[in-house]
Amino acid sequence: xxxxxxxxxxxxxxxxxxxxxxxxxxxxxxxxxxxxxxxxxxxxxxxxxxxxxxxxxxxxxxxxxxxxxxxxxxxxxxxxxxxxxxxxxxxxxxxxxxxxxxxxxxxxxxxxxxxxxxxxxxxxxxxxxxxxxxxxxxxxxxxxxxxxxxxxxxxxxxxxxxxxxxxxxxxxxxxxxxxxxxxxxxxxxxxxxxxxxxxxxxxxxxxxxxxxxxxxxxxxxxxxxxxxxxxxxxxxxxxxxxxxxxxxxxxxxxxxxxxxxxxxxxxxxxxxxxxxxxxxxxxxxxxxxxxxxxxxxxxxxxxxxxxxxxxxxxxxxxxxxxxxxxxxxxxxxxxxxxxxxxxxxxxxxxxxxxxxxxxxxxxxxxxxxxxxxxxxxxxxxxxxxxxxxxxxxxxxxxxxx
Length: 401
Description:
Blueprint: H1 2-6, E1 16-34, E2 37-51, E3 56-61, H2 67-77, H3 85-92, H4 106-126, H5 130-133, E4 141-143, E5 146-149, H6 158-172, E6 176-180, H7 186-200, E7 205-209, H8 216-226, E8 231-235, H9 241-248, E9 255-257, H10 262-268, E10 273-276, H11 278-281, H12 284-297, E11 300-303, H13 309-321, E12 352-354, H14 367-380
Parallel strand pairs: 5-6, 6-7, 7-8, 8-9, 9-10, 10-11
Antiparallel strand pairs: 1-2, 2-3, 4-12
């Protein structure tokens, strides 16, 4: 694959011939409880940008609802130079200062997925890994956490969660653990963390994610009870940055969020870290600028979880090239039962995953797997994150079909 990419010199004039977006499901081996209900896995759109010479760049959208928009963008991008990423963005995305006024995040996500593929194409055309295009690696491997939580048919008690984490440490050398202990019971969460700390010892890293589960009053209580167990980060313990700022007066546990709002984070002094998906930010180029803004303002950054191998490869290259990303990113790798890349899903050993070596993203699309998981999507529709077995007639959000 490296030789194939290297054969395309940087002086060649490439043109976009077509863009394909394939919706896929990536199920988990067992559904995970979260604030919205039960999380059985995720639905993505895998993007292929093909040039007139047959070179293909891979991208990935964080949801499958953008496929029609990606197809529409493909029509306007046909015949354009895929290496001129800025020009491609200008014909697809409104002026950035009014993007939020469009009230449609699909525009950013759709182009963000295409933009990842354009970077992959650039690396293949020039025979260079993405990390090299971004300035070179400052690390050869990237840290990712193990994940834990209450899973249907698996770990549904505090001790079962502890036993699972101990098994991950024994089998894979894992010492960084993040999880959702979301069943609406503060004492259940605290008891599970207490047992985790006692079993894993003082050197293990334990991070929590509430998905905005708690009210401010409940969060004060939970964090007060967790103070003795050295929780190294708590993601979205409450619903807003303003509540997080109030909570900070009662706890020195660092906070993170999936809401990528640097201005409010700096103004309010919380959260300490932002955790998000590159396509949500508009692509790799905008992610680089976003991470640079985080560095300038002292806000930490790490990468999202639950993606297929294409987006994960982008996380690996960017994290390898960005000194500011020092904390472990999230990972559901161990639980994903499928992927769309050859050799996927990625799996961490001793907390880290090596950065792919080939040109561009350094991953190869597994067409048989793509067909399998696309068929799963066609047969079952997008995976529903908002089903609660306790309320079978109620939808917390109507699933798209």
